[in-house]
Amino acid sequence: MENNKNLETHCPSCGKFTGTYERCPYCGAEVGKRMSIKVFRYGSVLLAIFGVLFLWLAAQNKEIEELDFAAITPTMNFAFVKVSGTVIGDPRVYFNENGNVNSMNFTIANGKNEVRVMAYSAVAQSIIEERKLPAKGENVEIKGSLRVRDEGDTLALYIQTSEHIMIEGSGPVKTKDFWEITKEEEGKHIDIKAYIVDIKKNDNKAPGSIVISSESGKTTSLTVWNTVIDGLRMMHKDKLVRGAEFEARVTVNVYKDRMQLMLRNSTDLTLTGKFGKDIGLSTKVKGEITKDDLGKDVVISGVVSEIFNINTKNGKVMKKLLFNYGFGEIDIMLYQEVHENFKSEIVEGNKLEINGAVKEYNGKLQIIPAKTENVKFLGVTDIPVKEKYNNIQIKDQEITEEFLNKYIDVTGKVYSRENLKGNMKYKFIYGSNKQIILFIKKGAVNYMQELENLADGTKIKITGKVTVFKNELEIILEHSKNIQILGE
Known about the structure:
By secondary structure, this protein is mainly β. Helices cover 14% and strands 43% of the residues.
């Protein structure tokens, strides 16, 4: 013990105490020491680094086994697992007020078990941008952090990176012109490019639609749920307008033997920033033009009832046409650059086709054609315009077949309302207790909501067309301006 002590703490030459010195401060002789603790300190750090690196490499190369849903217990909360299953229901994507993706979720099922899959912020945005958001019915394999609630009855999986979601069997997606897609491609995803014509939400439980057009004028509709339309408007705001070019991934469905192009998620449509010009975006009118049509380009045909000349501030003359298009009358505004190329065609009684945008001025709807080509002369009517629109006044005489296809003015009371898919049918009593069917078209009802709930005994004054349906005479009311509610 003494020898060991002297060798480590005392100088072997002079025998004096040297402590931790490796050279004697008294005589300068070297003092033998045990291995320095620094060696152990640095060695342990290097060993730890190599150990952690080894563990990381082992974790990276070890494949995670797929989790058996039946084996999940509450103690597995926060475990990193891999699951697979089939997507049930359409995925939901939520946006913040700036139109950026805030979160997304969908549910997958494996047998009788279900798990809700979620991602937030940057991870959700990456999944969307990489087009890894699955569609209903697709098989997926997902890795993520498991959340176990209610003793294992409620499961949730949080995706931590877009690399952890894989859609099974998802090969390259075809890009095609939408008019070349056929029913034989049912279930496939296809990328298309087109222009927006119109976006229509459905007030019922049925899906809405996005009317689209090619540059050459070919048109079709994408089937889309209202929630998807809301998402598109959140994402693109005021850029989602008629004529905007877009790219979309659609799913081919067949419903009642008719092909549908389904836009399942709002994130499946992106705007290119380009706009189409003169690509046939106008929609032919099939009913009354209302404020719902504001901003749309429409095509109508009808007869000029009256013409007014308006002098503008810049010294030019604008023509205002009172135009009867079969569902009522509307103002057509023709700038001098448009009407000056017509000599004798624009006169009262002539039939025209008008293509233009629906606008509103002082609370009144009007159509404004942008150029001369948007006004077409269809011919001269053989009946003077004043006689053609001189409605027959009905007081006490009976409405018979001699009034077929003629317009009449009549006052009476309604009873027994019946809603026929948005059209309203009433029993109409006029004159000395005479009776006829009153049929109010859906367009008029949409524009004047009270027409849907007229109480029995309500007195009204109408202008309508006498027609026959199933051997029974009826009055057709097509335009909301042709009715006055006088009270009960």
